[in-house]
Write a structure and sequence with these properties.
Length: about 170
Amino acid sequence: MYAKIIFLTVLTLLLWSHTEPLWGAEPVLGDEPKEVPKLTGEKISIAKQVATIADLKPLVGTYYIAAQNWRNDIRTDVVSMQTPQPGVLVPAGARMGLWKFVKAAENRKMVDVPNLRGETLENARQSLTNIALQPFGILEDEIEGEILDQYPEPGAKVFVGTSIFLTLKK
C-alpha cells in the first residue's frame, strides 16, 4: 500500500516538475518553488528519497523523548517531526530537517535551547556544543554565515544530544 502511494507521489512530483509553463518558455529545473511533502510517519530511508526527488536536501537529526512519555508504538526508524511543514513552498534545493525520536535515559540531562538567531554560524555551533546539543541543517563545509532561524524554538527544554535545525541567512 505504502509503496503504491510513494510511487504515485514520486511520479506526480516528476511529472509536475517537467511541465511547460503556459507562456511557452522552456522549463528550467530549479526555478520553480517546491512544495514540501509530508514525510512524518515515513521510514527515514524512503523520506530521504522522496525529499531528494522533490529537489530538496533532507538532513536527519535526533530528538530525545522522556522515558515516561515513551510509547511502545514509537519507531526510531521513521520521521517523527519535520521542518519546514508539509505544503510550504520553498526554493529548489532547500534543506529539510527530519527528526527521529529516541528514548532518553532516565538520568539524561535537560537544557534550554538558546536563541541563536542573528548569531554567526561559528558562535551558534560553539553555543550548542557547550551545552551538548547538536547543530544540523548546515553542511559540514559551511564555515560562516548568520543564523536566520532555528528549531526547536529558543527557550524550549530538550535533552542533551538533541539536534537543533539551523537555517542560514542567504
